Each structure stands twice: as C-alpha cells, then as structure tokens.
Amino acid sequence: MSANSLPEGAAVWHSLEVDKALDLLDSNADSGLTPQETQQRLQKYGPNELEETAGRSAWEILLDQFKNIMLLMLIGVALISGFLDLMALRSGSLKPGEVPFKDTIAILAIVILNGILGYVQESRAEKALAALKKMTSPLVRVIREGRLVEIAAKDLVPGDVMLLEAGMQIAADGRLIEQSNLQVRESALTGEAEAVNKQASLKLPEDTSLGDRLNVVYQGTEVVQGRGKVLVTNTGMTTELGKIATMLQAVESEPTPLQQRMTQLGNVLVTGSLILVAIVVVGGVIQARGFSNIQELLEVSLSMAVAVVPEGLPAVITVTLALGTQRMVRQNALIRKLPAVETLGSVTTICSDKTGTLTQNKMVVQSVFTNNKTFRVTGQGYTPTGDFQLNDRKISLEESPEILALSVACAVCNDSVLQKEQGEWAILGDPTEGALVTLAGKAGIEKDQWNSKLPRVAEFPFSSERKRMSVISQVEGVATGEASSRDVDPAIAGLIQSEPYLMFTKGSPELILARSTQIHLGNHSAPLTEAQRQNILTENDQMASKGLRVLGFAYKPLAEIPPEGSDEASEQGLVWLGLVGMLDAPRPEVRAAVQECREAGIRPVMITGDHQLTARAIATDLGIAQEGDRVLTGQELQRMTDQELEQNVDLVSIYARVSPEHKLRIVQALQRRGRFVAMTGDGVNDAPALKQADIGIAMGITGTDVSKEASDMVLLDDNFATIVSATKEGRVVYTNIRRFIKYILGSNIGEVITIAAAPLIGLGGVPLTPLQILWMNLVTDGLPALALAVEPPEPDVMKRPPFSPRESIFARGLGSYMIRIGIIFAIISIALMWWAYQHTHAAGYQGNRDAWKTMVFTTLCLAQMGHAIAIRSNNRLAIEMNPFSNIFVLAAVVVTTILQLMLVYVPPLRDFFGTHYLNMQELGVCIGFSALMFVWIEAEKIFLRIMGKKAV
Q1: Distance spanning both ends of the chain, measured CA to CA
Q2: Element (H or E) spanning 133, and its range?
Q3: Do β-strands 574-586 and 516-521 pair in parallel, antiparallel, or remain unpaired?
Q4: In terms of DSSP bridges, do strands 501-507 and 468-474 run parallel, antiparallel, or are they unpaired?
C-alpha cells in the first residue's frame, strides 16, 4: 500500500488485530519504514505538531475597546467641545483665566483610561495551546529500516514503529504491537489518576470508551513502568491531543452576563440621551424662533451627553471585581478573568469532575469481609486511626482475630510507605497500596515494625497479565531456630505450624479465590467449601456494585524460599484471608456544599471518566443523585444525537466513562437548554469544555497547565466546596454592582433632566460644565460607589435561586427605581436652581451672578451623599443599620463632602473648575435641599413597609 492510499484516520485502531493494523499502514513490526516512505508520509500528513489558528492582535483588541457606544459618544462630545473652544480662542471670546480645551482633554483622558481598562482585562493571551504543545515529547526512539534510531518527535509519521520505556512521554497515538508489564498514566486525557495496564493482544469493540482502550496509547500520556512497541497510527492534529487542540480553538468566547448587561445599559443611555438632546435643541430653537442661541444649545447638549454617561462606572466595576477576586483568593479560588467574579453569581448548573474535587483523591478502605462477616471501617484519608464496626457496633480485635491476620497481609504485601509530613499523613507510592497500609495501621499493625518481624526475602511482582502479587517473608526466630511458632506475634501465630516462611498474596478476588483451597477462620485454617466460595463471590459482587475497588488476600506457609519463576506453581493451595473494598472517599465537606447548592437553586452534576458503579456510589452518597437515578455512559452518549442529548441533559446527574468531546457536548446541550454552566476539570481532556462553559474551573493542585490556561477560575485546594463559596461571593458582587448602578444612574438621570430644564425654563447659560459633570461622575459618584461595592452579603443570599443570567440590567425594579429617583433628584435640583437663579439675580445681590450654577453643582453632589447612606439597604432604615458595618461608606461620604467644599472655597480649584464662592446662607440652602433626597428614600422604605412590600 502506498502512502497516498493510507487510511485517513477513519480506522478504529483499537478494534483491529495488530497484523491488520500493520497491513493498513503498510508497515513492518521488525523493520519499520524506509526513508523514502517516511519522506512521502511526512509530505502527506505534515509534521507531528499541533497547529495554531491566528487570533486577534493586540492592536485589534485595543481598537475594539473604542467601539463601545458610550465611549464613541464621549469621543464625539470631546471633538465638538474642542471645536467650540477653538472657535472661542480664535474669536477672543474666552473668559479671563479660562483654560482652553480643558473639557476636551478631561473627556479624552477618561475615554483612554476606560479603553486601557478594557484592554487589560481582555488582552490576556490564550496560552492553552502553548501549554498543550509542551506535552509533546521532543525526541523519540523508532525502528527504521531495521535499525534503532532517535528522531525528533515532529518527524514521526503514521506507520512508524515507536519504542516505549518507563519515564517516557508518548509522542503520538498508536496501536500496541507488543508490551511487557506496560503501565501508562492517562490522567491528562481521561482525568483518572490511576495508571492503566496495557495489553497488545486485545481486540476491542469499536464503541469502547477512551479510558478502556487498553491496546492503544496516546500522545501526551506518560509511561509509568514496563516497555512496549507501538505502531504509530495518528500524528499532529489527528491525535486525541490534536482533536482537543481543534476543539479548543473552535470554542468561541461568549460575552459574560455583566458584559451583555453593560452593552445594553450603554445602548439605552446613549439612545435616551440623543432623544433628550434632540428635544432640547428643537425646543430651544422653537422657543428662540431661530438659531440665534445654537451655541448655548450645543453647550447644553454637550453637558447632557457627558452627564448621561457614567464615566466612573467601568473603573468602579473593575475595582469591585478586583476586590471580589481578593476575597475569593482567601477562600482558595483564584480568578483568572475579572468578569468571572460576577458571572459566578449567575451559575445554575455545576458540572464537576469526581476524582479529587468531590473526592479526596485518596483511596480509603470502606469494607472488610473475613470469616463470613462484613466489617465497616471508619476514618478519613490516610490517617491510620479508625474503628472496625459490625452491624454499626464497634468491635475489638480480640473478638475478630482474623482481622489482624488480614491487616498483616495488607502491610507486608505492600510497596507503599505511610509517613507524616507537616502534620498531614501522606503516602509514598501507589494510592491503592496506601489505603491498605492505612487499614493495617487502624488495626495497630505498623508496616515498619512488621518489615522487621517478617523481612521480605523474595517476591513475585504484580503484572497486568497475572493480576496479583506475592511477597515471601521470613518468620524471624523460627527460620533461624531461635524460637518456635508458639513464640511469634499472636497476629500470625495461627498462620504457621513450624514453617519458617510465609507467602502473602493479593490481587483479583476471583483469581486468588480460584487458587485457594483453605480458609482462615479465627486462629486456624479449614478446608474451603463450595458454599463459602459462593458466599465470598457474592460479597465481592456486592462490594463492586457499590463502586468499591475490591482486592482478595490469601497466605501460604512455606518450608523454603520458592525458586525464581515458580510463581504459577507456588501460588497454588493458598489459604483465603478475606476481601478488602476501597473507594476514593468523598470529601467530608462536600455533602454540605451540595446541600447548599440545592438550597440556592443550583444543580450539581458529576461528569467523570471513572466506571458508572463508582460514579453512582459517590454521587448518591453526596446527594448529587438519588438511588436509582440514571447514569449516562460515554458509549450511550456517543450514540445520541445532539437533540436527544438536549432532551435528556436535564434528567441526568451522573455521566461516566466520558471522553473529551462528550464533556464539550454536555456543556453545549445544557447551554442550549438555557442553563448557565460552571465546569470543573484538571486534565487536557477538560480544556475545550472549560473554555466552552460559562465558567471554566481548573484544579490548582492536580490541574494541567492546559486546563488552567483555558479556565476562568482555578481552585487552589481542588475542592468542590470552594466553588460554592465562590458562587456565593459572585452573588454578593452582582448584588453590589446592581446597588451602585442604581446609585450612579439615579443621579445621572437627575443631572440630565436638570441640565435640560435650564434653557427650557428660561434660565441663562448651562448650569454645569462638562468638567464639573466629570467631577461628579468620577469623584462624588465614584468614591461612594466603591464603598458600596464592599457591602456585606445579605443573610438569604444562598437561600434563593440564581437570577437569570439573561435578565436585563433594569430587571426586578432597578429601571423604575433609577427613573423614579432620577425624577425626584431633578425636581429637588430644579427647585433649588429656580430659587438660586432668582436669589443671585435679585437687586442688590453682592456675589457673582453665576453663583446659582455653583449652588446647583453643590446640591447635586451633596444629595448623592444622602443617597449613598440610604441605599445601603433596600428595606432597612439608615438608623436601623450599624454605620460602622461598612466603614468605607461613612469615610467616602466624609471625604467626598470635604473635596466638594474645597472646589468652592479653595481659590485655585475654584478657578480651574469654574465655581464661585458661596456664603454660609447659600451653602445652608444647598445642604437643606440635598437632605431632601435622603428623606425621600427613607420615606419610600417606610411606605413600602406599611404596604407590606419588599423593595428591590
């Protein structure tokens, strides 16, 4: 077969015999490919590299920031203001001491600042693909023309014969030709930490899930032990890693709910402003019966346009989100993208991986079956303390001596080490063996001591073919003749007569039981009956149905050390000890977190690469699913259409044996159903789904760089409970953002109406300059708004369903509040403006006749201080709240008031901002009018309380 007729990746390699795969790729297991063949295939398939599609450049991201409708309007205002100043400069009509273009410079500075803020948030380069590329091996050993050569991984082609050994990172996907005790860690692809035993001789069904394809290996995975020879079947973007890269680049980032709401807000504000400007200009022209006052109308329009745009809002939101990230870091949640802080508050579904997130990622023995009794074992993690319980009653080991013998077998037939590091118990070695050492410790059998009592003299190691391991130990004293069997430790006294050696065997329960002829009962052994065999097999099936990983244990007294290679003969005639069932136990705090999710209207879903029995057991235990709920496997999901999956996705809470594309499809199906999805993951396989999800959550401890780069948030402790805490913080942030939007925009509406009213009621000039409005929007609105951003959470924040992520920013009464408060604000300001104008234009007035404008400016600013104090709570009166529960609001009000008075009474600031000196009477009138705002809002609360309604 020529290179031009090679299969295009459609072959299901795990379902083919080795010879058939070699024929399809026209390769030879012993000689590999020739240089001519490799060159042809390299031209056809390209290098074994991950390809990157072009994204937006830094300049494109920066320019996109200035497409925001509010910034575009401000740019227009700045240009018109600059044009008017230029005309005034040329005509010499500038007032003495007036600085030209100061409004233009100030507005453009705000525009540039907001653009930079947006750029910084958005310009974080997507590095997920770069992290993915790091997972490919730089060099690889292959057979070409019958010779062993080392080549660059990028030069691999389909048909190459690649050699594997322990410690290698696999450079391409391939079908195993042969293997010897080959174990591969595929956690990067499947999410499961346990190494997989590979078998070249298998021929598997086509629909076998990724984690069960034991006769193939994948790029980016790691050889833990053993060696193998592999036929390369897929390279570059056709590998499983390449498919993930393709999916990763195909996922388009959707705007977050906050970004969508801010866009909607901008559209409404700008449209409303332009309509109001048109009304004012047309009304002014009609009133003047011509265009004689067009310059004054233009100045009014410019002030209105500046007033309607909340210039300080982007900065306040950014700081609020940044403060939210700091609070979340203290709770072990690291936010990578600022908008994710608020987005968390909208989550309706949390799709969580099982291993390490819902569970401890520590195997813990749950059950022991020996002498026809099932014992429950208590304890957490690798801490060697716990009880053995029979029928929920704690039993002593004297009552059940067979537990001691089984525990000795667990400790001695074991290569792991249990040690205490910085106050925490940890395992050095295999997690399964670690669970057995911990079990022995709970029975008082310490591995170090028993390594001395029963020193290892030989072993038959575990292999994937044998599915068992045996350790031969010397019984100290008996072997040397210094003691008899009566003098040995009571834990093993019943295991030997006079034999100097003991062999302990563990492994697959069915295989160990088939090699057993006797059973250990109490302190003696007896022939193993058929009824006892069936009883053991039944218990094994029951343990497995609960999702437990089950191991069988046996022993055999030996008169001499068996010769090497005699494992088949030596491991016969065993004495059965018992079954040990273990599980990656749930984190103790997750049950409460799942319950809190339920109360908050959030549905938790488990998506795992593990077996369905284990997944069901954990999910049921944690309350994620109920007994009898459906488990959807990867094979079933593969056969479903997108429409069928969409119909089932709200009914299934457990997904097992899933592959990368399955996770992505599940997230997409949930999103099509209108759900707002948070997705957790740690492996490379999770990256596309993490990027697709509304909130992608990577694991900080076990997570790969690829998953972290694709995520919005990183869990520093890999704990599901942390997600719930972060979701609570997200809700608090969103509530506070709504609070200060009400605060800022209520006053902005009042400013716009006040400015528009001035020419319509026949007052001369514009009451507020663009610079004064910028001061109000940035300082007198901005500082208290920042203080409101740290308002503590309400007690019921996690006792209600999440608000719809697609709800309008004006939903739940916010829009009506803004209009209502804006109108009240305007009525108070217009009343003050009318009085102040008459006052300053009265005969005999000694001050500057434009002082009425400064009174309007001061009243608007001080009224906002009362508004800030009152808006802290929607329902409680200010006198009912502790003023020091948010000391920042109090500080912001005091500081802002002082700054505002400095603009009136400090001459340089007065000259720059165009204000005028106010006497004490005028200042008192301003304070009196501004206090009416606070009185009105408090009166509204009392009215709603009397009417029995709750404010928004």
Answers
A1: 74
A2: helix 128-133
A3: parallel
A4: antiparallel
pLDDT at 125 over 70: no
Question: Do 277 and 304 form a contact (C-beta atoms < 8 A)?
Answer: yes
- Please name the amino acid found at residue 292: S
- φ, ψ for residue 796, nearest 5 deg: -100, 20
pLDDT per residue as tens digits for the range 362-393 = 889 999 999 889 999 999 889 999 999 998 89
Residue 133 tokens, joined: 């590329």
Place of tokens 């009509």: 93
Distance CA 184, CA 576 (A): 31
Contacts of 507 (CB under 8 A, 6+ apart): 462, 466, 467, 468, 469, 551, 552
Range of weakest confidence among 267-271, 524-528, 868-872: 267-271
Q: Are 297 and 281 in contact (CB under 8 A)?
A: yes
- Which positions ≥6 away from 462 have C-beta within 8 Å? 468, 469, 507
The H-assigned helical ranges of 191-256 are 240-250
Collapsed DSSP state (helix, strand, coil) of residue 502? strand
The residues annotated with a catalytic role in the active site are 353
Question: How many helices, marked H, and strands, marked E, lie in the chain?
Answer: 34, 28
Amino acid at 53: T
- Provide Rg for the chain, Cα atoms: 37
Per-position b or e across 853-875, b if 16+ CB within 10 A of its CB: bbbbbbbbbbbbbbbbbbbbebe
pLDDT of residue 3: 45
**E strands of 559-664, at which residues?**
574-586, 603-607, 631-633, 654-656
The string of DSSP codes covering 551-580 is EEEEEEEESSPPPTT-HHHHTSSEEEEEEE
Question: Do strands 713-715 and 695-699 pair parallel, antiparallel, or not at all (unpaired)?
Answer: parallel
What is the crossing angle of helices 294-308 and 720-760, to 10°?
160
pLDDT per position as a tens digit, 223-256: 888 899 999 999 988 998 888 888 777 766 667 7
Burial 287-324 (b: 16+ CB within 10 A, else e): eeeeeebeebbbbbbbbbbbbbbbbbbbbbbbbbbebb
Look up residue 151 and give its two tokens.
């080549």
Q: 150-157: long-range contacts (C-beta < 8 A, 24 or more apart)?
A: 153/48, 154/47, 154/48, 154/49, 155/38, 155/42, 155/47, 155/48, 156/48, 156/232, 156/235, 157/33, 157/38, 157/41, 157/42, 157/45, 157/48, 157/232, 157/235
Burial (CB count <10 Å: 0-12, 13-18, 19+), residue 253: exposed
Concatenating the DSSP letter of every residue in 831-882 gives: HHHHHHHHHHTSTT--S-TTHHHHHHHHHHHHHHHHHHHHTT-SSS-GGGS-
Quickly list H helices, 761-813: 770-775, 782-788
Q: Which residue has the tokens 């250990």?
A: 520
Per-residue model confidence (pLDDT) at position 127 = 53
SS3 content of the chain, % helix, strand, coil (to 5): 50, 15, 35
Strand 549-558 to strand 603-607: parallel, antiparallel, or no bridges (unpaired)?
unpaired
121: confidence class by pLDDT, cuts 50, 70, 90: low
Structure tokens at 79: 């240009």
> Residues 6 or more apart from 696 whose CB is under 8 A from it?
678, 679, 681, 689, 690, 710, 711, 712, 713
Give the angle subtended at the CA of 560 by the CAs of 558 and 561, to the nearest 5°.
100
From residue 655, give the alpha-carbon distance in Å to each of 289, 593, 619, 750. 74, 20, 10, 54
Among 141-145, 209-213, 329-333, top mean pLDDT goes to: 141-145
Return the bridge partners of 196, or none: 184
Asked if 5 and 40 touch (Cβ cutoff 8 Å), the reply is: no
Return the closest-CA partner of residue 409 out of 525, 511, 491, 499. 491
Angle at the Cα of 453 (from 439 to 434), degrees rounded to 5?
A: 25
Tokens describing residue 906: 């400090």
Instruction: Identify the three-state secondary structure at position 791.
Output: coil
Residue 319 pLDDT: 81
Q: Please say whether the beta carbons of 376 and 433 come within 8 A.
A: no
